[in-house]
Amino acid sequence: MRSHYSGQLNETMVDQTVTLCGWVHRRRDHGGVIFLDMRDRDGIAQVVVDPDTAEAFANADRARSEYVLRISGRVRLRPEGTQNPNMPTGLIEVLAKDVEVLNTAATPPFQLDEHGKVGEEVRLKHRYIDLRRPEMIDKLRLRSRISHSVRAYLEGQGFLDIETPILTRATPEGARDYLVPSRTHAGSFFALPQSPQLFKQLLMVSGFDRYYQIAKCFRDEDLRADRQPEFTQIDLEASFVEEEDIMSITENMVRNLFKDVLDVELPAFPRMPYVEAMQRFGSDKPDLRIPLELTDVGDLMKDVDFKVFSGPANADDGRVAALKVKGGATLTRKEIDEYTKFVGIYGARGLAWIKVNERAKGLEGLQSPIVKFMEGVVEQLLDRVGAEDGDIIFFGADKTNIVNEALGALRVKLGEDLELYTAEWSPLWVVDFPMFEADGEARLQALHHPFTAPSCDVETLRNNPAEALSRAYDMVLNGTELGGGSIRIHDQAMQQSVLELLGIGEEEAREKFGFLLDALQYGAPPHGGLAFGLDRLVMLMSGARTIREVIAFPKTQSAACLMTDAPGEVSGEQLKELNIRLRQKAKAEGAAE
Question: What is the pTM (predicted TM-score) of this model?
Fold first, then answer.
């Protein structure tokens, strides 16, 4: 029905006859001449309709915002003084010969160029309108280009695109499962996959050597800006590889992707051990664009007359750390109070600080409510953090995990608020993760998942599991974890040992993933892989604020779809077929009886 998209028109096409199809973005009537901005997925073109073409003029006259039109006409240069150099098609316009109204439109719930004046709920309720915005089209077009580039790269590296099941069984992978009742097996349930983890390992056992998939994954967990109940990941696995092989393949993939799609040459990907990342930045996904670091000062605080500091400094699980902000002494008391409230979100009970006004004056040159308690260690403290006039030093003192989370988050917020970024892109590999972490009851949990290989043998692992490191690696970009992976356990005895250390007995292991344990008996090769969050990747590359902006039909933060009103109730007949009776409904029926 069309010869061109609106965004394809340019000055080289003057005097050509074109046919456009799309929506009325804007309509203007200037002294008997009607101007229509025609919009489609490629852009906007100005169409001029004059009274000489009576039928076309009449149709244009009744057209309104979001009407669907088909227009034929001649491309011409815009008159001098009316050109718009800021618009890709701003040098030309189409003089319409025919205007056909393909469909009318009700008044939209919001104007596309005024979307910022309505809340996100309104835009998600009418997502099909929201997706007409050029910004949204650009984001989804970018997403498509990213997927295409990734596929082309991996296919060129010998990876095969293989689909894995969506209906599977529940396995422990760190989040709650979405369950699907089975009609044919009463009382039994499928689970939607949190990842294709076990299936891709089975593909390695099957001898496929190199697998990839752009896979849908499902996790019933608390949502935030970079989480959705259903999300997409670039999933890959390879056999007969070491960590360096997977890291090299995927690092080159991301480099190629940025060059191909954004024409950006990413800098080198440095390596940083997990322990160092937590010590210096309080996070296992540090944003290296921000030139702020945490400095341990606990040894200086053990004997100070300030229990807020001396308590954690002398505790086995405590930490006292300082965060120096160069030039931060200009922060007002109100701003500091806001930062104190902010760290409270992460469990911090306060935020101590020292302003360094004139260091040469000693204590008199410092401004702080706590400095009087630390007279004997102040100079050592200032030397250790490298404090100079005009700086401010923030402190965290508590259990190690609280200090890391609070100061790590404060570091990122200060970077944003004070615009401290030193680069546009800063990638990083975080390596040498602990194999396990302790839960609240001192039981071991897998830091990644139970199928991650340790960097030691079975005997060493069993003798000292708390000190064991895993063969895992995370790719981080600008403070966001793009992807994580590991070398997997391919030996059944090692897998059984890890499960036992996690408190998963033989019976439970057989019930949850006996099929994997069986497969490991039949010549499983050494293998490993990595999974990237495609939504997060597109979010970063497009400059979006949340992954909801780069998903065509996302859920809200309460895991609901406002457009379709999902989740919703189902009929009693459907429940009966599934042998399910709702508890509340059953109680109500019992009360009625």
Answer: 0.90
